[in-house]
Design a protein that fits this description.
Structural class: mainly beta
Oligomer: single chain
Shape: globular
Strand content: 35-45%
Largest sheet: 7 strands, antiparallel
Number of strands: 11
Amino acid sequence: MKKTTSKKLSNRLLKYSAFSAAILGAANASGQIVYTDIPDETVLPGSTYALDLNNDLTGDLAFTINTAANFAFMQTISGTAATVYNSNGFVGFSAGPYNYPSNLAAGDLINGTNGIFSARGDFNYSSCGYSGSQFCDGLDGYVGLTLVVGANTYYGWVRIQVASDTSNMIIKDYAYN
């Protein structure tokens, strides 16, 4: 197990908090950024990982690697079944018949005005064979997201790493406001 010193942890949390504040925009006086550093979760071909952002025991996003078509994708879900739940969503765009999650940079604003999709989004369809694929370099990337709980909408991000050959995907951490 890798040991993290309190100084390293403090610096890491400060870095992610700054990223969260920039990407979410300025938090209002009553808002609070909720950052969660989960143990890295590796998704392998043929498996799905349901991420529960607000710890209510209901999956909010599903991350999957499809072995038959050789692509990694995510979708909003209800529970652990792959049923689309239209209230949650991700920041992305359409190219041809597919939706792609955008790979966001620090400072990108996540709100109700940028492209929010509530269906499946392909990270690197057919091993990056489509021009819309933004997670093809095997490096960390950030997906903007919306989470709807009752009458409240939360905006945030999840940090992932998708192998360029779609052999695995790692979910690392997330934050929302």
